[in-house]
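Exam review. A common question shows you a sequence with its structure tokens and asks you to describe the fold in words. Practice with the pair below. Do the first one on your own.
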Amino acid sequence: MTYIIKRDGRIERFDEEKLKSSIMAAAREAGLLDKRWVSAIIQMVAANAIAYARGQRSVKSQTLAEMILEELDNQGGQISNAWRAYSKPRP
């Protein structure tokens, strides 16, 4: 089982669906859900992040976020920019 170490030190069980839904929410926020390629990008990025996390006993949330952003940047900036904005800590 893999655990995520949050920025504030909390530890949570890795949740694949939470990861996928956060990328999907960013795509929605960017207005990209009607594009066919968005689903493929989400699946690919999520699969790579999930495979990475499963190979670890624990992973820092920041490390996982950086990996996801790098992959999203490689696919085009719209989703990665939206995900950056979506995943920013809210005051």
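Now try the second one, then compare your answer with the model answer below.
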Amino acid sequence: MSLTITCPICGKRDGYEFRFGGEDKGPRPDEDGLTPQRWCEYVHLNECVAGVQKEWWVHKDGCGSWFTIHRDSVMNVEVATPEAHK
């Protein structure tokens, strides 16, 4: 079975309707005193967790909404919360 993702607008759909947008890294770094190296690290360095991580997804073949989900990258399944899948 392929990955299913729950869109907040359209509900549960096949993962092929969505596009991965990357890890949710939290808020952008403050621009005051931001160095090119720090910006590069924020944009390009990922944790790549083997397990549950928070991710950005877009419903590209549906409503076009961007949203975050928690996904277990080992089992490739959406989980309600990180604690729910331990």
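Model answer, second protein: The domain at 4-85 is CATH 3.30.2270.10 (Folate-binding fold). The chain has one domain: 4-85. Full marks require stating both points clearly.
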